[in-house]
Design a protein that fits this description.
It contains eleven helices and nine strands. By secondary structure, the protein is α+β, with helices and mostly antiparallel strands. The radius of gyration is 21 Å and the shape is globular.
């Protein structure tokens, strides 16, 4: 079973790393301090074609596979997890359904401008009472002639305050629970649609989260993705969730790599008791364990992406390994940032150093793509338990 990176993938990974080191790392602490991703950086990311990595050339994309996209996510997260989250929202979650299930008109209206960076998108399923349990979703979609009325409330909408369009999950048949979900595109300014409060956060500064309110939000029939089919959205949602989990694993690897590199360099420079702390066995063992876990998580995440590319993201094997990779990589990232903070000791408590930002940002990885506990439930189910 050969899933080694191709030469093209290696070159791509290196080129993304060069971009990150040139354009993101030098301003990452400033983004964190100001709680804002500069519009100039957004334009540079778009100009590099990164928002179109997953889509065909006919729409302005590059048609790369899942594994190559994960390389992009990994390198971006190494520079800034907040920037990486926002970029993946634009390049993946907010545009995936439009590409896979939208009409040609919908693709030209939203996908193509999103790839160019001219329009921003957001993806919204989470509600105050429906996070891990999406079957408890309360937002309803009811037919009314050539329109649908959406009523409900969404929360934790990544990129919501800045978005131009929103891919929103709503119940078309509440009696079916999870299987009653469908998806609609709602544009900013649609009557009955309101952007609510911005949610303050402990970490991930620069990445904006907000609430959305829909009150008799009237959307045309043609913005129901793949047609209004009374619950087919659930099938689409299961597939994208598996890919989101692998992508989140890649983001975790990137953050862990940044924490490891910072710790390794610091251990060579920080002197205590007459020698660099990296000469003490306790520090050596911390770094040796981190290096081992990081490499294991990276290989497993690449393998999981490889499975999605070959067997499809809706296959049972893909669903299982995606949850495994997400849990393994993101839990490893938590240990990596914690060990980095310990190695830095008092300096790790200072907001002047990136290691503090790594520590604050890491918690988001345990939430995106489903919690560890939810993913363990999925793994157990696929094991036949």
């Amino acid at each position: 079973m050969d899933f080694e990176l191709t030469e093209e993938q290696k070159l791509f990974k290196n080129s993304v790393r060069e971009f990150v080191e040139r354009e993101i790392i030098p301003i990452a602490n400033e983004i964190d301090a100001k709680d804002e991703i500069p519009s100039e950086l957004w334009r540079k990311i778009a100009d590099m074609g990164y928002f179109g990595l997953r889509y065909p050339e006919e729409y302005g994309g590059s048609a790369y596979d899942v594994l190559t996209f994960c390389l992009f996510c990994e390198e971006f997260a190494r520079g800034s997890l907040a920037v990486a989250f926002q970029a993946t929202m634009q390049a993946f979650q907010s545009t995936d359904f439009i590409f896979k299930y939208g009409t040609e008109e919908q693709k030209q209206r939203w996908l193509v401008p999103a790839i160019r960076g001219e329009k921003r998108g957001a993806f919204s399923v989470t509600e105050p009472g429906a996070g891990s349990d999406l079957g408890a979703m309360e937002t309803l979609a009811t037919e009314e002639g050539d329109y649908y009325l959406l009523n409900g409330r969404k929360t934790w909408v990544t990129g919501g305050p800045l978005a131009d369009f929103y891919v929103i999950g709503a119940m078309s048949d509440k009696s079916k629970g999870f299987d009653g979900i469908d998806f609609f595109v709602v544009e900013r300014g649609t009557p009955g649609f309101k952007i609510g409060r911005e949610i303050p956060k402990f970490g991930m500064k620069g990445l904006k989260e907000c609430e959305l309110m829909l009150e008799n939000c009237k959307v045309p029939r043609e913005v129901a993705l793949a047609g209004f089919r009374k619950g087919n959205g659930a099938k689409y949602l299961r597939g994208i969730l598996a890919e989101i989990r692998v992508v989140t694993a890649a983001l975790g690897i990137g953050l862990a790599q940044a924490a490891f590199e910072a710790s390794l360099e610091y251990s060579k420079q920080r002197v205590q008791f007459g020698r660099p702390i990296g000469k003490f066995q306790v520090i050596q063992h911390k770094l040796a364990n981190l290096a081992t876990e990081l490499e294991a998580a990276r290989m497993f995440t690449y393998y999981s992406a490889w499975i999605l590319d070959r067997k499809g993201r809706e296959s049972r094997e893909a669903i299982k390994v995606a949850s495994m990779a997400k849990n393994f990589a993101c839990e490893m990232a938590q240990r990596a940032v914690d060990e980095a903070r310990r190695i830095y000791a008092s300096y790790g408590f200072s907001s002047e150093l990136p290691v503090n930002r790594y520590y604050r940002d890491a918690g988001a990885l345990l939430l995106g793509g489903g919690t560890t506990e939810i993913n363990n439930n999925i793994i157990a189910r696929e094991l036949g338990l």
